Amino acid sequence: MTLIAADHLCVRFGGSEVLHDVSIAVQPGEIVTIVGPNGSGKSTLLRALLGIVPAAQGRVQRAPGLRIGYVPQRLALDRSLPMTVRRFLSLPVRVSDAAASQALARVGVPAVAQMQMSSLSGGQLQRVLLARALLSDPQLLVLDEPTQGLDQPGEAGFYQLIEDVRAQSGVAVLMVSHDLHVVMAASDRVVCLNGHVCCEGTPHVVSSAPEYRALFGLGTKGALALYQHVHDHDHGHDHAHAHPHSHAHDHSHA
């Protein structure tokens, strides 16, 4: 059963076509990462899949009753307003203290409930946004450039967290990466977007595709760099080791 799919999707803003003839589908439990240059339509594609922007042509299909957890690229909150993390987790749907505590512990920030949203670090904020998305027990997590602004250890740690969440719950993940050349090794598929789908496949296949190299240049020797973890095998997702020819960064973190 496909969770969500775009079928020959076109999106226009004014007279400009932002997405042309895009077809993409996400299956239960898989991690799909979208990469592309600035202005390639990555965020627009996510918003079209979520029903936030309309399709000019084509269609979007979602599984009946699909539960989606969404982590936006930017938080549309007035950070000058006093609001604790605990209160934020109950917007727009109130949740119990126990559920809020469990969600924060699950994403590795159990002690921030009474902190002000405005005082959180970038990494803490991203984890709080993820905790809020997980409260609905989603079948699909949609993340729009979730590691933008994080340093490399923070990025690696967040990727590991997503891998752990998928391993524990079986949730599918659709994520836009801010870095053309770095995706997490646990990605089952990478989709290269530049207004249309240029190429798609496993990280190893995409990294050697001429379409990828022609579009995205020769950063990291023209290949995708895969975040892998020395304890991947503990979770049964040994994707990094399946791609021995990729230029992998091994970030272990206790």
The oligomeric state is: single chain
Distinct helical segment count? 7
How big is the Rg? Answer: 18 Å
Look up the CATH topology of the largest domain.
Rossmann fold
- Named at the architecture level, the CATH assignment of the largest domain is 3-Layer(aba) Sandwich
- The CATH class label of the largest domain is Alpha Beta
Going across the biggest sheet, name each strand in turn: 5-6-7-3-9-10
- The general outline is globular
Average per-residue pLDDT, rounded, comes to 85
Low-confidence stretches: 230-254
How far apart are the first and last residues' alpha carbons, in Å? 37 Å
Secondary structural class: alpha/beta
Number of strands: 12
H and E order = EEEHEEHHHEHEEEEHHEE
- Strand content bin: 25-35%
Helical percent range?
25-40%
Largest sheet: 6 strands, mixed
Integer tally of domains:
2
- Could you state the CATH homologous superfamily of the largest domain? P-loop containing nucleotide triphosphate hydrolases
Protein name: Metal ABC transporter ATP-binding protein
GO biological process, one term: zinc ion transport
GO molecular function: ATP binding; ATP hydrolysis activity
Keywords: ATP-binding, Cell membrane, Ion transport, Membrane, Nucleotide-binding, Translocase, Transport, Zinc, Zinc transport
